[in-house]
UniProtKB/TrEMBL annotation:
GO terms for molecular function: chitinase activity. This is Glycoside hydrolase family 19 catalytic domain-containing protein. It comes from the Bacteria. InterPro entries: Glyco_hydro_19_cat, Lysozyme-like_dom_sf. Residues 39-131 form the Glycoside hydrolase family 19 catalytic domain. One of its GO terms (biological process) is cell wall macromolecule catabolic process.
């Protein structure tokens, strides 16, 4: 389902402070299409995804490579998560690093492996695939709706009886910038529905 003129007029004025680029529209359209294809009909969830991408991708609405490519993090070197901090397992193949890529910054060998198997893609040998907008959108949607990132999905925070815009951040990264992202998401929701969240 592509975005409407009213949707873009609303988010241009609020989220994008008066000016939106074609590349930003292209990224948003990739996400809207992937969400529709995945059967995500709850516009609160779609809006939360868009708000997350706006934050994670520095407003570009395009899949990005993590700033610093994991420098200073174990996943920026050839280590698997293993048994946790202090018990990292080195690897030699594939000859790749699994720093953050995509709309939501997929990281770690194990996460690329699991998501690749889930989507029937060879993300271990070709982690750059996570930078293709359609694939990045599918990674984000599967991870956010099915709880593949942190063990909890959007359904916990958006159901028939409530909407928890702030704690929904826990599906990605604890409470990191939770209020800020909730604000972005609510602007996207107003664009999608014409309703204030």
């Amino acid at each position: 389902m592509p975005g409407t003129k009213e949707f873009y007029d609303t988010i241009r004025a609020s989220v994008f402070k008066g000016h939106i680029l074609q590349s930003q529209i292209d990224g948003i359209e990739a996400i809207l299409k992937a969400a529709a294809d995945a059967g995500v009909t709850d516009q609160r969830k779609v809006a939360y995804m868009l708000g997350t991408v706006y934050h994670e991708c520095a407003g570009t609405m395009q899949p990005i490579t993590e700033f610093g490519k994991g420098k200073g993090h174990p996943y920026g070197e050839k280590f698997k998560m293993g048994g946790g901090p202090g018990h990292r397992i080195p690897y030699t193949t594939p000859d790749q690093l699994y720093y953050g890529r995509g709309f939501v910054q997929l990281t770690w060998y194990e996460n690329y492996d699991a998501m690749g198997k889930h989507l029937h893609l060879d993300l271990l040998n070709h982690p750059e695939l996570a930078l293709q907008p359609d694939i990045a959108a599918n990674i984000m949607i599967e991870g956010m709706t099915k709880g593949m990132f942190t063990g909890v999905g959007l359904g916990k925070y958006f159901d028939t009886t409530h909407a928890d815009w702030i704690n929904a951040r826990r599906i990605i990264n604890g409470n990191d910038h939770d209020v800020l992202i909730a604000g972005y998401a609510k602007h996207f929701y107003k664009g999608l529905t014409g309703i204030d969240a």
